[in-house]
UniProtKB/TrEMBL annotation, chain A:
It comes from the Bacteria. The lineage of its organism: Bacteria, Bacillati, Actinomycetota, Actinomycetes, Pseudonocardiales. It comes from Streptoalloteichus hindustanus. GO terms for molecular function: ATP binding; ATP hydrolysis activity; transmembrane transporter activity. SMART domains: AAA. This is Putative ABC transport system ATP-binding protein. Gene3D superfamilies: P-loop containing nucleotide triphosphate hydrolases. CDD domains: ABC_MJ0796_LolCDE_FtsE. One of its GO terms (cellular component) is plasma membrane. PANTHER family: ABC TRANSPORTER RELATED, IMPORT ATP-BINDING PROTEIN. Keywords: ATP-binding, Nucleotide-binding, Transport.
Automatic annotation (TrEMBL), chain B:
The chain crosses the membrane at residues 268-289, 316-342, 354-379, 405-423, 429-450, 488-508, 716-735, 755-780, 800-825. GO terms for cellular component: plasma membrane. The keyword Nucleus does not apply. Residues 267-388, 719-826 form the ABC3 transporter permease C-terminal domain. It is found in: Cell membrane. Keywords: Cell membrane, Membrane, Transmembrane, Transmembrane helix. It comes from Streptoalloteichus hindustanus. It is a multi-pass membrane protein. Pfam families: FtsX. This is Putative ABC transport system permease protein.
Length: 254, 829
């Protein structure tokens, strides 16, 4: 794995994207999903990415997390340059340095909560430190449910287990793809509060894509995306402010 | 293959069910066509074409015990008695008809080259064709014959015919041909009526194969005359045929093949229906489990259980009907392939065409629709009846408990199967063995029904072990299998059925052949024998120097043993052996103590020596009288004068040579000719026939076991193909249903190789489970049958057969797991 530049003295950002473009297809029919996006996410911050459908949110997430290769530009996760890694190196990067939380939790149905938390460690051919798993599960509030299987837990509980799974490798950054999209309001609020707490108190870094202004309002920073560019940013988000931004975006989009 | 898999995925659950049902329709249509007995077979009558009515002997006889009748099958048609011929003459005299008896003798003839089997007829029988002279003239004395033009002999040529006395010279004086110009299906020569009668004499009577009735122009309807004859000849053991059915009298081998086919497919059909229900049921359950969320949603938004049930039943009925119709296309091909295989292993005559039957096709479509309806109803009822909340919860869980009645039935079948399998330990003889074979099938089906809980428990252990591994792909496999009993069981069940049924089906024939092989090897004191294909060998063998070990004619003939069971007749098919002169010099029978017969003397006409298994089945001991129905339907009641050990190898029963040859069916060799000659030394080989090992001549040669296996597995060929389709189907469904899980694992850092390998581990586990379960289910009867037949518990199933089954199942399963896995993993996350 090649090592990126180290910012002397200063903290290395958890995620750094420079002039990243992503183009699908070729010639006149090509679609430019990302257009020279540059972005830095500092360690310990909670960032939300919003935008209308087709604005490039998912592509941004995929390029940032090393699921997909950028057409041009560079992506660094911590000190590691994602650009230039091959398929299996990127898989290892995701396993060791990146965490994922999905809308539909995506826990393995046959495994207990404990085993589900362990998955990324197991993929690396190791066993999770039981202490660490216990600590993490306490942190996300599922320590009493470790022996249960997914169908014996509520959606909110499952998403907490998924969060613990994302954190178990102590990743540089956690990406969330609509992590509260499938939860009821109450559970969603609790999970968002937990995510905020994890970033502020434990210095974890979370970037999530969302449609929900309430979810976005829990973040430290909200980026607004349209036509593959970051068109706006809000550093003191509230629900009202986010809604206003979105309204403006959608109006200009028509 | 990949395109197919992709198409299947598009169709989702219903696609898999559709494929399973298409295969079902195919299988049912093939089985049905076999049952119908090759209806497109066009061998209509040739030599009897001019006779509007043909009367022939039945290929069965009736035995009676305590007022109860039972039909027994004979190896060929019975000859017609003089009394029958007279009755026919009397009955049709009024109509002005001509009655022509066809005297027929099966023998061999040659000009300059090899001996070929021909049928010798009397000259008057030519009118039945009517065959016309194409050259030369009619025979006028016993030294002259007229031959089929197709034999290629010309008038004036000198030929030989082979009778019980040996080769005899004849002169061809003319040639005949069918009026249609077609090549006759069976070659024939025509002798003067007197010569034919002399030749066809068997003991006290003459073999009349058929009687043709030639009605004059303007005579009453042939059907009416035939009906009148049927009434007059009722219970005389004859059949009266008109039209196309006359071919069945002329070509007894075709009629017999049809009967065999019917018996074969009849016994297959029960297996087929059970397998079908299990396979379609498990596929349907798998498909439904994929759609459970959709069903749960429908229930949640207010669909009543009744509506859901109707929806599912309606859907399945439609799918079943379409599948039934589509399945007829492969069915027509598979039927032909099965026909070809059956001809290749000799179960059918070489020109017997097996083709898709219309009635069978329509029945298959209807049955498939019914099967679909039934499984849709059963699966849907369970899925639809649960409350919406439970439905949504179990949609997330992805697991459903198996129905209670399935488990109860599984346990009952297993228990009955175990009990039946133990029978050979208690009951001697073929009855115990046969019941154990059936018990084996029950065991296999019982186990198939119990796969869910059994596989669940098995994989619990396996996945726990795998989850303890730190090798990522093993761990992943463990994670994939944990708590997935129903998905895995759906893959295991059909595969274990293949393994189990293969073993059980060949179990009895393979054990019998193996035992026969051993006994023949131990019981034959000579190494060689002469056999002939399709004709008899002369029994008047010149006696020479070595009077102790002469060339000895042997007759092998199928007879039926009759006994009383539960106040009714019970019959068993046996091979009887008759040795001309003294058996003791050439055969070591292994006579049991207590036998009153001296094997160095000739067996009397009222005496019988029974093999141990025969004695057990008939419940007879030395001194008792036993009843046998001979090949021409005659009943004899000889006294048992001995019991011998090597019945499986040398013949279930020994009877007097002349008793057997004098009561052959009309399709068997002429007079007292032999089926084989035991050859004590090669220098005395006669100028006819083919020299083979003595064991082979007794049907117990080195490849007897393999031949037995081929004969008993070919009918299952279609069934195996069907199960293979469903195995592939359910495994593909099982793998592709996990696209979402794989995508998630890819995202959180599993690489493609790890996932691909985990699939291989899972595939191997499924294969191993199927093989272990299938073998375990068949093991008990395998051991008891082997014990019952050979006295050792070591199963007679050859290792190559086991390896072929295991190899085929593994290859199939791994292909069905790895290929769709590749496809799923290739997709973009």
């Amino acid at each position: 794995m090649s090592t990126g530049t180290t910012a002397a003295g200063g903290a290395v950002p958890a995620l750094r994207m420079t002039d990243v473009s992503k183009q699908y297809g070729r010639g006149p029919g090509a679609v430019r999903a990302l257009d020279s996006v540059s972005l830095r996410v500092a360690r310990g911050s909670f960032v939300a990415v919003m935008g209308p459908s087709g604005s490039g949110k998912s592509t941004l997430l995929q390029c940032a997390a090393g699921l997909d290769e950028a057409s041009s530009g560079t992506v660094h996760i911590g000190q590691v340059a994602v650009t230039g890694l091959d398929e299996s190196q990127r898989a290892m990067l995701r396993r060791d340095r990146v965490g994922f939380v999905f809308q539909s939790y995506n826990l393995l149905a046959g495994l207990t909560a404990y085993q589900n938390i362990e998955v990324p460690v197991r993929l690396a051919g190791q066993r999770a430190n039981p202490e660490l798993v216990r600590e993490l599960s306490e942190r996300v509030g599922v320590s009493a449910l470790l022996r249960r299987r997914p169908h014996e837990m509520s959606g909110g509980q499952q998403q907490r287990v998924a969060l613990a799974r994302a954190l178990v490798t102590e990743p540089e950054i956690v990406f969330g793809d609509e992590p509260t999209g499938a939860l009821d309001t109450g559970s969603a609020r609790q999970v968002l509060a937990l995510m905020r707490e994890l970033t502020h108190r434990d210095q974890r870094t979370i970037v999530m894509v969302t449609h929900d202004p309430v979810a976005a309002a829990h973040a430290d920073r909200v980026l607004f995306l349209a036509d593959g560019r970051i068109v706006d940013e809000e550093t003191t988000p509230t629900v009202d402010v986010v809604l206003r931004h979105m309204a403006r975006l959608e109006a200009s989009g028509c | 293959m990949l395109t197919l898999v992709r198409g299947l995925r598009r169709l989702g659950g219903n696609g898999a069910t559709l494929v399973a049902l298409v295969a079902t329709a195919t299988l049912l249509a093939v089985c049905g066509s076999m049952l119908a007995g090759g209806s497109t077979d066009t061998a209509s009558t040739q030599r009897y074409a001019a006779a509007q009515i043909v009367v022939g002997g039945e290929s069965s006889a009736v035995v009676t015990r305590e007022g109860k009748d039972k039909d027994v099958a004979l190896p060929g048609p019975r000859p017609l008695s003089a009394e029958v011929v007279d009755t026919i003459r009397d009955r049709v005299r009024g109509a002005g008809a001509t009655v022509v008896p066809d005297i027929a003798a099966r023998l061999a003839a040659r000009s300059t080259k090899d001996w070929i089997p021909v049928t010798a007829h009397g000259w008057s029988a030519r009118q039945l064709g009517p065959l016309g002279l194409t050259s030369g003239s009619a025979p006028t004395n016993s030294g002259q014959i007229v031959a089929d033009e197709s034999l290629g002999w010309s008038a004036g040529e000198s030929v030989e015919i082979l009778t019980e006395a040996g080769p005899q010279k004849r002169t061809v004086v003319g040639t005949v041909a069918l009026p249609t110009g077609a090549t006759p299906r069976q070659a024939a020569i025509y002798l003067t009526d007197e010569a034919a009668t002399a030749l066809a004499r068997r003991g006290a009577r003459v073999d009349v194969a058929a009687v043709g009735v030639l009605l004059p122009a303007g005579a009453p309807n042939a059907e009416d005359v035939a009906d009148d004859l049927r009434t007059a000849l009722e219970r005389k053991g004859v059949v009266v045929e008109t039209g196309d059915a006359r071919g069945q009298i002329e070509f007894a081998d075709l009629a017999r093949a049809r009967g065999d086919l019917r018996t074969l497919s009849g016994s297959l059909l029960a297996v087929v229906i059970l397998v079908t229900l299990i396979v379609v049921g498990s596929t349907c359950a798998l498909a439904l489990s994929r759609r459970r969320r959709e069903i749960a949603t429908l229930r949640a938004i207010g669909a009543t259980p009744r509506q859901m049930e109707r929806l599912m039943v309606g859907e399945m009925a439609a799918v079943g009907f379409v599948a039934g119709v589509v399945g007829l296309v492969p069915a027509s091909v598979v039927t032909k392939v099965v026909g070809w295989l059956l001809r290749a292993v000799g179960l059918l005559p070489h020109d017997f065409a097996l083709a898709l039957n219309a009635v069978a096709g329509i029945s298959a479509v209807l049955l498939t629709t019914l099967v679909a309806l039934a499984t849709g109803w059963a699966a849907g009822r369970r899925t639809a009846a649960i409350s919406p909340v439970a439905a949504l919860a179990s949609a997330a869980a992805g697991e459903q408990k198996p129905a209670r009645w399935v488990l109860v039935l599984g346990v009952v079948l297993t228990v009955v199967g175990v009990a039946a399998s133990l029978l050979p330990l208690v009951v001697d003889g073929i009855v115990g063995v046969a019941v154990a074979g059936g018990g084996g099938l029950l065991l296999v089906f019982g186990t198939a029904l119990l796969t869910r809980p059994v596989v669940g428990a098995l994989f619990q252990v396996v996945s726990r072990r795998l989850l303890a591994s730190t090798t990522p792909h093993r761990w992943l496999a463990g994670a994939g299998m944990s708590g997935q009993a129903s998905r895995l069981a759906a893959g295991v069940a059909p595969m274990m059925l293949i393994v189990g049924i293969s073993l059980v089906q060949i179990l009895v024939p393979a054990s019998l052949s193996a035992a026969a092989q051993r006994e023949a090897a131990a019981g034959l004191k000579v190494d060689h024998a002469v056999v002939a294909a399709g004709y008899g060998l002369p029994s008047a063998v010149p006696r020479s120097r070595d009077q102790h070990r002469p060339v000895t004619p042997v007759v092998r003939q199928q007879v039926v043993g009759v006994t009383t069971v539960l106040g009714g007749p019970e019959t068993f098919r046996y091979t009887a052996t008759g040795v001309r002169d003294r058996a003791g010099d050439l055969l070591d029978l292994g006579l049991r103590p207590g036998s009153t017969w001296d094997p160095t003397t000739t067996l009397g006409t009222d005496q019988a020596v029974l093999g141990t298994m025969t004695a057990a089945a008939l419940g007879a001991a030395v001194g008792d009288q036993v009843e046998f129905v001979l090949a021409d339907g005659t009943t004899v009641k000889p006294q048992v004068v001995g019991v011998f050990e090597r019945g499986l190898g040398l013949g279930d029963v020994l009877l007097n040579y002349d008793t057997l040859t004098d009561h052959r069916s009309v399709s068997e060799p002429v007079g007292r000719t032999a089926n084989l000659l035991l050859l004590p030394d090669l220098s005395r080989r006669p100028p006819v026939g083919e020299v083979v090992s003595a064991a082979e001549a007794f049907g117990a040669g080195g490849d007897a076991v393999s031949t037995g296996i081929a004969a008993s597995t070919v009918p299952l060929f279609a069934l195996f193909a069907y199960v293979a389709v469903s195995v592939a189907n359910s495994l593909i469904l099982s793998v592709t249903s996990r696209t979402g899980t794989f995508a998630m694992l890819r995202r959180i850092g599993a690489d493609r190789r790890q996932l691909a390998r985990s699939l291989v581990v899972e595939g191997l586990s499924v294969v191993a489970a199927a093989i272990v379960l299938g073998t375990a289910a068949a093991l008990l009867p395998m051991v008891t049958v082997a014990y019952g037949l050979t006295g050792t518990p070591w199963p007679a199933i050859p290792s190559w057969f086991y390896l072929v089954v295991v190899g085929a199942v593994s290859a199939l399963a791994m292909t069905a797991v790895v290929l769709p896995g590749r496809l799923v993993l290739r997709e973009r996350h």
